[in-house]
Specification:
393 residues; 9-stranded mixed β-sheet; two-stranded antiparallel sheet; 13 helices; single chain; alpha+beta
Length: 393
């Protein structure tokens, strides 16, 4: 039975009315935040951020808050490579346990002799690849959220693999979709982090660093509030700020001085501050997970103003410390978005090669079952899975 939209309509109208009520307050908060961007004393705020203990993620400052940088010109000859992935998760309604990761990649050469290479590389995992263990009997199954993390690792490893065969003298941008921070790993034991982060993701970043190319990740329509939270620290009357000590008993909205800039996101700030093609100053991720585990790959980021949105671009520290590489990231990401009507062409092409449709998933399981049947192997399925294949009147 389809969704009864008539019942939902009244709730949608209520949602719209509530959003409209809060619009004036949000505009006031944004106006104050923009004033603070230009008036904040940077060095004292840097020290206060480092010393403070907050319950939200706060951006570390590199230079100022309100600087805006014009895009440098693109080099005449350059290369952009990108990877993206999709996967088929373990089917818990089947007795056969396996999963598939499909990595799509794009290698685009620009200049006098333009060229493009598009790849798709599927990999089936089963047996020992279904779990990560610590050698003493503890293990975590690779499925759900953890499979998503493993896919991100595979995407980065593919970038490193492609980059090794490129001419070293040619300016190159390597792009990943989404964050460089493997947030999902925080929920898992240390032996899982070591296997996927230390021996996988960071090892691939080591390879990319050795090639001295520009690595970046692209986040479309970001919901981050790291920079806004830096302003919240500035508004706090306590130095250093300590949320648990001073504000644990206060109401979460309206009862704290820092709530004067609540309800807005970083993209709101830079939508107003930046002109088309300009980027914000660099910021440092305040993630304790990154600070503890990423080392030389500590994540920096900036915001880039495009025609339709403000995007977040993340880079490792070794890129952030090179003005030449930062400018290359800025110029080529903007150029890619211009060519892709608002989204990087290389990522778009990599996604198209990686995508696994619903029909692909169904066909995959049919092929698995057919192959096993030919070898006289039988797998059992749950009643729920069988019922989804039947049509009922």
């Amino acid at each position: 039975m389809p969704l009864d939209l008539a019942q939902v309509l009244a709730q949608i109208k209520g949602l719209a009315a509530r959003l409209k009520e809060g619009e004036k307050e949000r505009e006031e908060h944004l106006e104050l935040a923009l004033k603070m961007l230009s008036s904040a004393e940077i060095e004292p705020l840097k020290r206060k951020i480092v010393a403070s203990k907050t319950t939200w993620l706060v951006a570390g400052l590199v230079h100022g808050l309100d600087e805006h940088c014009d895009a440098p010109p693109c080099p005449k000859e350059f290369t952009v490579l990108a990877s993206d992935g999709s996967h088929i998760d373990v089917d818990r309604h089947s007795s056969l346990r396996c999963y598939l990761i499909n990595i799509g990649s794009a290698l685009l050469h620009y200049g006098e002799n333009p060229d493009a290479s598009l790849y798709s590389e599927p990999a089936l995992f089963f047996g020992d690849d279904l779990a990560i263990g610590d050698g003493s009997g503890r293990e975590e199954l690779i499925e759900g959220a953890l499979l998503g993390v493993k896919r991100s690792v595979e995407e980065c490893m593919m970038l490193a693999k492609l980059a090794r065969d490129l001419p070293s003298a040619r300016p190159t941008l390597a792009l990943i979709d989404g964050s460089l921070i493997l947030w999902g790993l925080q929920a898992f034991p240390e032996f899982v982090r070591e296997a996927l982060l230390d021996k996988g993701f960071l090892k691939a970043l080591d390879s990319l660093k050795a090639l001295n190319l520009a690595l970046a990740s692209y986040i479309s329509f970001p919901r981050s509030t790291d920079v806004v939270n830096a302003l919240r620290v500035a508004l706090c009357p306590h130095d250093p700020a300590d949320c648990d000590r001073y504000c644990s008993g206060k109401r979460p909205a309206g009862g704290r001085e820092c709530d004067a800039v609540a309800g807005i996101q970083d993209r709101d700030l830079f939508e107003s501050l930046l002109g088309y093609g300009q980027r914000s100053p660099l910021f440092i991720s305040g993630s304790r997970f990154v600070q503890k585990h990423y080392g030389q790959h500590e994540i920096h980021f900036f915001y880039l103003k495009l025609e339709e949105e403000v995007a977040r671009v993340e880079i490792p520290r070794w890129v952030a410390e090179s003005e030449e590489l930062v400018e290359l990231v800025h110029a080529l990401v903007l150029d890619q978005c211009r060519r892709g009507h608002g989204y990087p062409v290389a990522l778009m092409e990599a996604h198209e090669k990686a995508v696994v449709t619903t029909a692909d998933r169904e066909r995959f399981w049919q092929l698995v079952e057919l192959s096993l049947a030919e070898d006289r192997l039988n797998i059992r399925s749950s009643g729920k899975r069988m019922s989804k294949r039947l049509r009922w009147v």
